[in-house]
Amino acid sequence: MRFQRQTISVEEAVKILLSDLETPREEQVGIYEAAGRILARDITATCDLPPFDRSPLDGFAVRAEDTAGATVDQPVSLEVLETIAAGDVPAKTLTPGTASRIMTGAMLPQGANAVIMFEQTEQPGEWSRQVRVKRSLIAGENLSKQGEEVPIGSIVAKAGERINAGTLAVLATFGYAQVPVVRKPRVGLLSTGPELLEINEPMKPGKIRNSNAIMLAALIAEAGGIPVPLAGLPDELPLVKRQLEECLQDVDLLVTSGGVSVGDFDVMAYLADEPDVTLLFNRVAMRPGTPTTALIYQNKRICALSGNPGACFLGAHLFLLPLVRSLSGERHSQAKRIQAVLGETYDKPCPYPRFLRGRLTEEAGQLIFWPDWNHKAGNLCTMSMSESFGIIPPGGRGKQAGELIEVLPHTMPSWSREG
C-alpha cells in the first residue's frame, strides 16, 4: 500500500474526512465564558422584544389626535401629567388634552399612541405643567411596539453559530446566564521521527527541533479545539499501535506529523496496511503534501500530515482545521475560496494543483495575490507572513502575472488592518 496509492482530489479527501462524524456533545458554560464557543442548540426569545411599548427618543408621549393642526406658528398646548424615566412604570393614563414627559427606552403610558421629540416643542429643557407642541403627529409615530423586533419564541441564534459579542448581547437580553455550547474536541498531537528534539533541547548533529507540534497546537486552539501534546511515536509498528491505542482513549481526534511517505521508517504509511485500521486516503492531488493520509483506528480519526513544515502547515488548513471545526459543531467548517489576480508569474510545471503560500493586497478594488517565493515544503521561516494559499492549476504552463487564480485565505490580510 505504501507504493500503490490511489490519488484523490483535495475536495474528495475533505468530503471523506468529514463524513459520518459523531454528533458533537453539549455542555453548559457561563455566559462570560461563552465567547468564541459554538452554540449547541437554537436559542429562542424568552419574551417579546421590546417587552412593552416604549419610546425610542426623549420627548412627550401624546395622543396623536390631540396634536391635529399643530404648527410652529400655532402650537397646541397639552397638560403634562408626569415624567417617565427609563425603568419607571407610568402612573397616569393619558386622557384628551394631556401628555407625559418621557425618556428614551421608557414604557409608554396607557392612552398614548405617539411620541413627539423635545426639539418639536417649545422650551423643551424646562419642566412645566404645560407643553406646547409645534407639529401634528399620526398614531404610531415614534413608537417601539411590544414584540416588533422579536416576538416571544422566535429563534434569535442558531445552533452551529460561533458566539461573538453581538450573540452575547442577545443571550443576555433573553436571560441566558448559562449557555448550551458544543464541547470542545480534544485533539491529540503526535510527532514521528528520531530526528526531532524538544524545543528546549540543545541542537545536535542530524537533529531538528519539533516546530510542527507547537504550530499545530496553535491552529487547533484557533479552530476551537483543545490541543493535547503527546509523547512522540517510536519507529516500530507494534509499539506505534500500542501507543496509539493508549492515546486515542483520551482524545476525540489524533493528528500526527511525519511518517506518511514511502521511506523505510515512515510508520504511519505502514499503519495503513494493518487489518484493524480503516484507510480513508493516503495520497492527495496537491503539492506540497501529496502523501497526506487519513485513517480510522479504534473508531477515532487520525489525520496524518507530512513532516515537512510547509506541507504540514498546508495540510492542517486543508484537512485538520475543517475536521476540528466540524467536531466543534461549527456549521461552516471549510474556508471559502475566492479569486484574485496573480501578482507575479509562476510557470513551474506540476502534475497536481500547487498551493503557494503568500499574501493578498488590494489595488483599485482588485485583490492581488503575491506568492512567497520561499515556499519549498521544508521552508518555514516565512510561514509567519503567510495569509493565504494561491492555487496554481496542474499542467505545464502555470499561471502568468495578471491572470485570475483561486485563493484560499487563512488569515486576515495585513492591508485590511492598516490605518
From TrEMBL:
Residue ranges occupied by any MoaB/Mog domain in the UniProt entry: 188-326
Cofactor(s) the protein requires to work: Mg(2+)
Membrane-crossing segments per the record: none
Protein EC: 2.10.1.1
UniProt keyword list: Magnesium, Metal-binding, Molybdenum, Molybdenum cofactor biosynthesis, Transferase
Pfam families: MoCF_biosynth (PF00994), MoeA_C (PF03454), MoeA_N (PF03453)
SUPFAM superfamilies with a match to the protein in the record: MoeA C-terminal domain-like, MoeA N-terminal region -like, Molybdenum cofactor biosynthesis proteins
Catalytic activity as recorded in UniProt: adenylyl-molybdopterin + molybdate = Mo-molybdopterin + AMP + H(+)
Leading EC class: transferase
CDD domains named in the record: MoeA (cd00887)
Pathway per the UniProt entry: Cofactor biosynthesis; molybdopterin biosynthesis
Gene3D superfamilies referenced in this protein's UniProt entry, alphabetically: MoaB/Mog-like domain, MoeA, C-terminal, domain IV, Molybdopterin biosynthesis moea protein, domain 2, Molybdopterin biosynthesis moea protein, domain 3
InterPro entries: MoaB/Mog-like_dom_sf, MoaB/Mog_dom, MoeA-like, MoeA_C_domain_IV, MoeA_C_domain_IV_sf, MoeA_linker/N, MoeA_linker/N_sf
Protein family membership: Belongs to the MoeA family.
Protein's job: Catalyzes the insertion of molybdate into adenylated molybdopterin with the concomitant release of AMP.
Name this protein carries in UniProt: Molybdopterin molybdenumtransferase
